[in-house]
Please model this.
Amino acid sequence: MRRLLIGLAALLPSIAMAGEIIDSAGRRVAIPDRIEKVFAAGGPASILLYVLAPELMTGWPRRPREEEKPFIASPYRDLPEVGMLTGRGGSANLETVIRVKPDVILDFGSVKETYVSLANATQQQIGIPYLLIDGRFEATAASLRLLGAALGKSERAEQLALYVEAQLTAVDAAIAQVPATRRPRVYLARGPDGLETGVAGSINTEIIERAGGRNVVEATEGQRGLVRASIEQVIVANPDAIITWDRGFYERAGHDPLWREVKAVREGRLYLSPTAPFGWIDRPPSVNRIMGLVWLAGIFYPQQFPKDLRDQVREFYKVFYQVTPDDKELDGLIAWSKGTAPPRR
Model:
């Protein structure tokens, strides 16, 4: 296999390295003078690249579904599926990357040692610069600016970074006026049974917590990321609000006698997160979560954020996704995002 990769690598054009960038992991990466193609290593990276410089994309890790395509600018809806190098179910391999012939590989997410080692090994093996960009939500604006500088897209990056900073500032200011004990207690219900969730501080729930929600699933020693809960645990926790992106669970919970014991379901505060073209909560956790922050802040603190959700969605999609949804598309996108009707007894 190594001989095959070396042979394929020889087919890559000679790239003139004209500059150097220090990525989020502190790695010094030589980058080409002219960047025309970027391979996104995973879902988060593909979204970051799409909002910043879609013309540089080589494809999608997963081809957009038909219901997602109207919310993606038309030149990029039908780019090929190329798989991904990182994340769950990674399906690309180095042969695929070499055949695509990108000028740069981009990963957006963790910059811990595991990913540094992968980036270094890949870069050494096939000779393509590999950038690691910090995917923490709090680092979003800085990460946009860093990648913008690397790709020669600083003006566009600054536009997006300023938007991000304005939203974070507004939300932080509003939350600061609310005592911690008065902030809503929230449960993230993942999957068809609603019993997969994320512990407090996980990448899956950080957007809920940044919007001023208190995660009812506290992290315990040895726990991180996603965990399984029981319906009994959810009933005991009795959250004020439940957030889900699974429509099947959303539609069933109000009729389930056990879930109806939970205050959030009983009082109609079960909310379905839109997922087109990308999830507002995670799936994947990238800059798409800025829209989730705006949405959740309005749910948790409606008096502080009275602006109409339709206007906010239209603005975000225009700025970030370069599409302007019409009224019908907006209705379909956010129809279930404002909470369920309280179930009948």
